[in-house]
Design goal:
63% of the residues lie in helices and 12% in strands. By secondary structure, the protein is of the alpha+beta class.
């Protein structure tokens, strides 16, 4: 091996390569410039590859890139050394450099052929773009499914809250109805005895005055029990098919006088609104209660709109005001008996509960839409009368 290297590095008597070119400047410098450019290019390409591989940690087959860079550098070295041999006959060193280049070239070629199937199997940019689009679509579908799930959870919570509220109102209604019935029976006895005592004490004005005061108190108590029975849906209704538009129109003048000049009443009646099976007197009382509540919510005056709308199998009555509105925690309690936001002595808290009971007993639904500072809309939805008569005690 040492003899081989000595022979390669100490070759004597060989002319330089320029001798073969007859030292023609044109040929000499053509070879020099060409080999110099090729060599520098071969050295610059591995530098670019090295920077790319170091900055991109996700490059596949990094070792193959490094082998390819070494092969290119070895090729560049042979071209640069070819310039040296134009003047210096160092053909042994040139042979060693070519031998190293050959080893690196063969090693790179041997490594690349088995790598070819794996490289071909790598996804193309188009395939990556398609996969990315598919992933984006799946992410959008997941987001939509997640949003749908959230909406379902919110809707379920809303329905559960409505169910709890309905169960609470049902329990309060049953309790209220039982108390109202018992109190009404006791009140009947009180009123009967007051009337009898009034007849017996006709000659004594002092006793008569006391009995009159007692009778007024009993009458107020009787109205209270009537309101409680209305809330508990145990009042007696005389239901008959009625045009909701006619009921509202017939009350407009009375409502205007009751509300006063500071509240402007507007009717918005849908001609398609059909008949409903209701007790006309109780319907008028419910509308009046809603109008009075709207007036109280507009202490500085405002606009009150009573509207009717025809829906699929339903007829809706809407009472809207431009008052102070209600917060959500207030809306959850407005239909409960004796709940009021008014000052002490300014309201019994039975107006909306009476409307609630009347609506439910008439087979309808009642709802409130309100925004603090903007106003409130109360919606009563009743079944459109189809010609069949509903029993009063249903």
């Amino acid at each position: 091996m040492l003899d081989y290297l000595d022979k390669m590095l100490n070759v004597q008597g060989l002319p330089p390569h320029g001798f073969c070119l007859l030292w023609d400047p044109t040929l000499i410098w053509t070879h020099v410039v060409a080999d110099l450019l090729i060599g520098l290019s071969y050295f610059s390409i591995p530098i670019v590859l090295a920077v790319f591989v170091m900055r991109r940690g996700d490059v596949q087959f990094r070792w193959a890139v490094w082998m390819f860079a070494a092969f290119i550098m070895a090729c560049g070295a042979t071209h640069l050394f070819a310039i040296y041999t134009l003047w210096m006959p160092a053909y042994g060193v040139q042979g060693l450099i070519k031998g190293i280049t050959a080893v690196v070239s063969v090693g790179t070629a041997v490594a690349l052929w088995p790598l070819l199937p794996r490289a071909v199997a790598l996804p193309s940019p188009a395939q990556l773009a398609l996969a990315n689009d598919t992933l984006n679509r799946r992410m959008e579908e997941r987001d939509l499914a997640f949003q749908s799930l959230q909406n379902e959870v919110i809707e379920r919570e809303r329905v559960e809250a409505m169910l709890r509220q309905a169960q609470k109102m049902e329990a309060v209604g049953q309790l209220t109805g039982g108390i109202a019935h018992d109190f009404n029976n006791l009140l009947t006895i009180v009123v009967a005895n007051l009337e009898r005592a009034d007849r017996l004490a006709a000659d004594d004005p002092r006793i008569g005055k006391a009995l009159d005061s007692a009778m007024k108190g009993a009458s107020r108590a009787a109205r209270l029990t009537h309101q409680l029975l209305a809330f508990s849906r145990q009042q007696s209704l005389q239901a008959e098919p009625s045009e909701i538009n006619e009921i509202v129109s017939g009350m407009s003048e009375m409502i205007t006088r009751t509300l006063g000049p500071e509240v402007h009443l507007q009717l918005d009646l849908d001609p398609a609104a059909g008949k409903v099976l209701v007790d006309v007197g109780q319907t008028e009382n419910a509308i009046l209660n809603l109008a009075l509540n709207a007036r109280d919510a507009m202490p500085g005056g405002g606009h009150l709109t009573i509207a009717t709308r025809a829906a699929e199998g339903r007829t809706c009555l809407l009472v809207s005001d431009t008052g102070t509105g209600m917060a959500p925690d207030v809306i959850n309690h407005v239909f409960e008996p004796f709940f009021t936001t008014k000052g002490v002595g300014k309201g019994s808290g039975l107006g909306l509960s009476q409307v609630y009971g009347f609506t439910k007993q008439s087979g309808g639904e009642i709802d409130i839409e309100s925004t603090v500072g903007e106003g409130t809309t109360l919606i009563i939805s009743l079944p459109t009368h189809d010609g069949e008569t509903r029993r009063d005690d249903d």
